[in-house]
Structures are given as structure tokens and as C-alpha cells.
Amino acid sequence: MNESKCPVPREQQPTNEFIELSKSKIFSWPKTKKSFIFILIKFWVGTFVIFLVISSGSVYFKTSLLRYILLSFFSSLSIPFLISIRLYLGWKHIFNRLTSEKVEYEESGWYDGQIWEKPLVLKEKESLIASIEVKPILKNLIQIFSIISVLALSGILIFQNINF
């Protein structure tokens, strides 16, 4: 954005917010789908071990080792699920800011919010960034979120319907 014509503070400009989010260590994870899946698998395995330790104190699971392992396995999906939701919400916010025709900003605090309408050139530039850079990330996050949801729901069905 042109600094002289744009009243929006530099850190609140959608393009700069996108750049900052892209540089962020955690929010840059979903930029490449394969590496993000490996990161989530690492979290899943780590959480699985923690859930195994927590569940080991249950008297109910002393009688069924398989139930104990399955419960820990499927409940450990909660951490990758929450991580992917948080990443999706952050990227969706940036996508909405980039595709919006107006920029909401605060000059010095929450009490003095303003709205600035983007010029056509800036709308096109930010729309291009949103469609080329952010939309594929959102698509990947939705796919991963769906996979985690299906795994969790199948775990619930297995746990409820099989007597062991």
C-alpha cells in the first residue's frame, strides 16, 4: 500500500499481515502439505504416548488392553485436530482481510476503529495473493481436518460398536 495515501497502520495492512503470518514458524507449517502432515503425525505420536500414561491409571482399562490402546490412539487425535483448527482460523482471517473491499483498522486502540476502502489496484493485488497463496493453504487444511475428523469418528464408532 502506498504509505502516503493509506491511513491504515503498516502492521494492520492485509498484505503485511500475510507476510508476517507466512514468516511465523507455526503458521508456515501448512504451506507444504507433506511436511505439515509429518508435523501432525509427530504431535499425534507424542500425544498418544502421553494419553497412554494418563489412561494407565484407569481401573476400567486394566481388564481390556485393546480398549485402553484404542482409546489412547483415537483420543490423541484431539491435539492435531486443535492445531489444524487454529491454523485454519488464522489463515482464514488473512484470506478474509485480503479479499475484503474495505480494511478495518485501529489507529491507537480498540476504541477508535476506522474503515478504509481499498483502491482498485490494491484490491486486485490482494485478491491475487489470496487466490494464489492463501487459498491452497486453506484447501490443504480442510483436507487434513477432514481426515482427522474421519479417523476420530471411526474411532468412536469402533469403540462403541465392538465388544471386546
Explain what the structure shows:
It is a single chain. The protein is built from five helices and two strands; from the N terminus they run H-H-H-H-E-E-H. It is mainly α and 164 residues long. It has one domain (32-106, 113-161). It has a two-stranded antiparallel ribbon. Strand 1 and strand 2 form a beta hairpin. Helix 1 (14-23) runs antiparallel to helix 4 (78-99), helix 2 crosses helix 3 (65-75) and helix 3 packs antiparallel against helix 5 (120-161). The protein is elongated, with a radius of gyration of 22 Å.
Ordered list of secondary-structure elements with their pairings:
Elements (H helix, E strand, L loop, with lengths): L13 H10 L9 H23 L9 H11 L2 H22 L2 E5 L6 E5 L2 H42 L3
Antiparallel strand pairs: 1-2
Helix pairs in contact: 1-4, 2-3, 2-4, 3-5, 4-5
Stretches where pLDDT is under 50 for at least 5 consecutive residues are none
N-end to C-end Cα span: 63 Å
Could you say which structural class the secondary elements and strand pairing correspond to? mainly alpha
Number of helices: 5
- Please tell me the total number of domains: 1
Largest sheet: 2 strands, antiparallel
What's the total count of β strands?
A: 2
Elements, N to C (H/E): HHHHEEH
Mean pLDDT: 88
Spatial sequence of strands, sheet with the most strands: 1-2
Indicate the radius of gyration in whole angstroms: 22 Å
Assign an overall shape: elongated
Helix content: 55-70%
Strand content: 5-15%
